[in-house]
Design goal:
Layout: E1 6-7, H1 13-22, E2 31-34, E3 36-41, H2 54-63, E4 66-71, H3 82-95, E5 99-102, H4 118-121, H5 138-151, E6 155-157, E7 170-171, H6 174-179, E8 183-184, H7 187-203, E9 207-209, H8 215-226, E10 231-235, H9 237-241, H10 262-274, E11 279-280, H11 289-292, H12 295-298, H13 309-318, H14 325-340, E12 348-358, E13 377-387, E14 390-394
Parallel strand pairs: 3-4, 4-5, 6-9, 7-8, 9-10, 10-11
Antiparallel strand pairs: 1-2, 2-12, 12-13, 13-14
Length: 396
Amino acid sequence: MELKIFDNSSDMAQEVLTRLRAEGISVSNFTVLPGFCDVHVHFREPGFSFKETMETGSAAAARGGYTAVCTMPNLNPIPDCMENLQLQLDRINEGACINVYPYASITVAERGEKLSDMAAMAEHAIGFSDDGRGVQSDEMMRQAMLEAKRLGKMIVAHCEVNELLRGGYIHDGDYAKAHGHRGICSESEWAQIARDIELVRETGCAYHVCHISTKESVELIRKAKAEGLDVTCETGPHYLVLDDSCLQEDGRFKMNPPLRDKSDREALVQGILDGTIDMVATDHAPHAANEKDRGLEKSAMGVVGLETAFPVMYTHFVKTGIMSMERLMELMVKNPRERFGIELSEDYSVWDLDACYKVDPADFASMGRATPFTGMEVYGKCLMTVCGGKTVYKTV
């Protein structure tokens, strides 16, 4: 897959400039980037349209420069059979302005007790995930991997050992101890990754780990790749830029997995630089305002991220010289699309990389407003996004 990055001195500039002017956008300096791909988002339909809809979720994606996303299955009903998956496919066809690829669940109702009807859904699902819950049973995950391998599909795992959670809701670190909060230990994540890697070694299944957050997870995946196992992973911008020293008594800092220690963040950054971590995914997880205004202990877990991902990553890693724009495009375009078999076509977004502003959730297209990046100064404003030849977002 060839990644093309253009500025306003390129041969493509005139074509894009003409389109910008036709859309009423006046700009003298711009950069054209390929359409981003996020393999981990929650658009909340069917079942939770008071949090987000297919229209608002895909509009948020387009505003963030994304032209392809993969939606997680913790919905109502959960897509564990073709009848339930079809409800989501119908909403995608009716409401999405970009390309949306749904996951189906690994187990019935994501309860971890019985495999979903994976064979019936395989043709229509981008992969299988029980996102929001780890599959607790070793034997159930083994069966899922064998069936996924037979079907030529990928297992996309939320890794979490329930018995290690112990009622925690933020990282079990200095902030939790200082403020009397119950913590989530790092082992709750990496222990299940270690188990799953053993099962990948046994079954030969294609396996992808969601939202890794710990240094141990990075090292486990690094070793698995060195061994030649078919393993990839993702992490989110918030885990790369923030850690638990940044926490405030505010629900916008609560997500699962939680913000970890500074040493974890540093290991994640090293992981994206050395290729251990394959892609950046937002885990865009909108909630209603009254679900996120209850402080760290009682707020729902989840933050939004589609509209801030590129500006945050560009500001903290490209402008600072930590990584090249080409590497960022590998993380946000090339690697997710290649791993999940999602074509790029001619989709692109147009950016003013010199635009500097503070993140303001009131500007979001998403119904979700909870982001730990509120008030952060970032560079990079999306001027226009084109998907399938259609303008799906333009700045006002």
